[in-house]
Amino acid sequence: MDCEMIEPLPAPCLDVVENLRAVRGAIADACKPVGRDAAGVALVAVSKNNGPERVRAALRAGHRLFGENRVQEAQGKWPAFKADHADIDLHLIGPLQTNKVREAVALFDAIDSVDRPRLARALAEEMDHQGRRLPVLIQVNTGEEPQKAGILPRDADGFLRECREDLGLDVRGLMCIPPVDDEPSPHFALLREIARRHGLGVLSMGMSADYGVAVAFGATHVRLGTAIFGDRRALLGTPIGG
Ligand SMILES: *Cc1c(COP(=O)(O)O)cnc(C)c1O
Asked: Which positions bear N6-(pyridoxal phosphate)lysine (predicted)?
């Protein structure tokens, strides 16, 4: 996966390729002490706020699994890439307003942030309408933060039953974003326990700062932005998608 072997790229793109390689190595290192196979940890490259040239670098390096947190931004960037690469797997990882459900179901390959009954109902209806049954994850607000999206842990059992049994959603697992100032491990452990109770296989947890810990707690998907694409704050002033 040497960049020169494909074709020369501008310097920032070379960093993306190098970062992908480094992150895969770090995931493998985190797997070893807990006896996990690194192949069981999918790397979701979070490309929000990054322009097409960095995404293209990741695509050229063979990466296909991406996450975006805003429907509108993703609509500006992804249709062209998807036209070129049929095997892209694009996940919505951010809050979804019900008035954007139609666009989200049309563009994304998975919705990882189903966080409330009203959204779950709107998604089920729209997926029926479009004949597109996307896999989904339920986002759990493990830190019970008022400003954060996600179903509260005490409501998770009922919500999961509604999503699966009443609405027929294809629920694959759970997602969480621990509070920034907390030790993340109790949050990862709580998510793992709720998933276990419901026989769910997918745990999307761990971001650039804590993915090693998440892997130790059983993450099957880690969502990395900064570790792959660099500090997004350095991109402020760069037109989104430009
Ligand atoms: C931005 C974002 C990430 C990636 O965050 P980094 O700290 O840059 O790795 C992961 N998950 C969600 C839901 C995000 O919005």
From this structure: 48
Q: Which is the closest atom of ligand 1 to the Cα of 207?
A: 9
Q: Which CATH number fits domain 3-229: 3.40.50.970, 3.30.160.250, 3.20.20.10, 1.10.3720.10?
A: 3.20.20.10
Digit-by-digit pLDDT tens for the chain (242 residues) are 444 455 566 666 669 999 999 999 999 999 999 999 999 999 999 999 998 999 999 999 999 999 999 999 999 999 999 999 999 999 999 999 999 999 999 999 999 999 999 999 999 999 999 999 999 999 999 999 999 999 999 999 999 999 999 999 999 999 999 999 999 999 999 999 999 999 999 999 999 999 999 999 999 999 999 999 988 766 655 544 43
Amino acid at 32: K
Nearest residue (by CA) to ligand 1, atom 1, is 225
Question: Does the C-beta of 93 come closer than 6 Å to ligand 1?
Answer: yes
In angstroms, the first-to-last Cα distance of the chain is 26
Distance CA 6, CA 180 (A): 39
Could you tell me if the CB of 207 is within 6 A of ligand 1?
Answer: yes
Ligand 1: distance of its center to the CA of 206 in Å?
9
User: Which residue among 139, 207, 240 is best mutated to probe the pocket of ligand 1, counting the most ligand atoms within 8 A of its Cβ?
Assistant: 207
CB 85 within 8 A of CB 64: yes
Count CB neighbours of 108 within 10 A. Answer: 23
